[in-house]
Amino acid sequence: MTPTAVVDLGRQAVEVALMVSAPLLLAAVLTGLVISIFQAATQINEMTLSFVPKVVVMFLTLVVAGPWLITVLTDFMRRLFESIPVMIG
């Protein structure tokens, strides 16, 4: 296995990790932004007010995007396992 192949494999792993985490992180950031604007407008400073909606939105995002996330992960793992013989010999 050449150093180029190792770097390429690492790059693919990072890309998959970013693709899988992006929907949940974007949902959390957008929800936090909306809640922060609401808290600033109403001057309500309650920590649970920002935590509970984020958890609910992330759960809904996971339900909606879950099949796609599983597909991305399983495709990467399948390609990785299929390339083991090529990497070894």
Folded structure, characterized:
The protein is mostly helical. The chain has one domain (3-88). It is 91% helix and 0% strand. The protein has helices at residues 3-42, 47-82, 84-88. Helix 1 runs antiparallel to helix 2. The protein is elongated and about 65 Å long. The relative contact order is 0.12. The mean pLDDT is 92.
Any chance you could write out the topology, listing elements then pairs?
Blueprint: H1 3-42, H2 47-82, H3 84-88
Summed up, what is this model?
By secondary structure, the protein is mostly helical. Helix content is 91%, strand content 0%.
Note the run of SSEs as H and E. HHH
What is the alpha-carbon Rg in Å?
A: 19 Å
What structural category characterises the helix and strand content?
A: mainly alpha
Mean pLDDT: 92
Q: Find the count of extended strands (DSSP E, 2+ residues).
A: 0
Give the fraction of residues assigned to helices.
Answer: over 70%
Uncertain runs are: none
Q: Distance between the terminal alpha carbons, to the nearest Å?
A: 8 Å
- Shape descriptor: elongated
Number of helices: 3
